[in-house]
Amino acid sequence: xxxxxxxxxxxxxxxxxxxxxxxxxxxxxxxxxxxxxxxxxxxxxxxxxxxxxxxxxxxxxxxxxxxxxxxxxxxxxxxxxxxxxxxxxxxxxxxxxxxxxxxxxxxxxxxxxxxxxxxxxxxxxxxxxxxxxxxxxxxxxxxxxxxxxxxxxxxxxxxxxxxxxxxxxxxxxxxxxxxxxxxxxxxxxxxxxxxxxxxxxxxxxxxxxxxxxxxxxxxxxxxxxxxxxxxxxxxxxxxxxxxxxxxxxxxxxxxxxxxxxxxxxxxxxxxxxxxxxxx
Length: 279
Description:
This protein is an alpha/beta fold. It is built from nine helices and eight strands. The longest helix is centred in the last third of the chain and has 20 residues, at 209-228.
């Protein structure tokens, strides 16, 4: 099994062509970015990916951004999903990462929504996986495990940092059996969270060693599961980001670290971690 690293464009403001040059210089293999909704921007991005033979993971949101429209019911989310998957197909992504649903829906509604979302994804012919994310349906592990029990065909992007802050603890108690989830993870977004936030100031800091160790053990469990499932390639996107995730100093509002440096650090460390395990 081979590990491929993808660079997130979350928080990136320079041209995509520059991001591509930087990620190749850092030894990354591809790019993960939001679906451009503007047609001209989407065409230009598709050309950049095609001309540079660049692997791409497409991220999209149902109704309509990271935080869903609260009044939107499942039908509106599903219509938005079908429309955006049509647009995503123009970019020929490796697969589509979906932030879907709403944390406020009751369980029966969640089950129905994901069952219908799976049908739409299958009809589009695109491989899709659903990301664990606060404010969305998969905001905590216990709802997710119940969805798996009823819809075992679900596949996931694991960003377990969201669950750490939602549950306000590292999920390393003997009662925290996440095996059914681990066995269905397709893609990893690698950010280190802690009990009071989704992103530590710097994962190399010794005061965050326990949080880093927990996340790395989770990622290792995913890799071992994928190897057992016959994966030839596993994908990981280091995803330290802005928007309140990156810590800033009070009064000066200066960031405590550089995002690309953080993501390169995580990427290089996980490349070494993977090679120690699998050669």
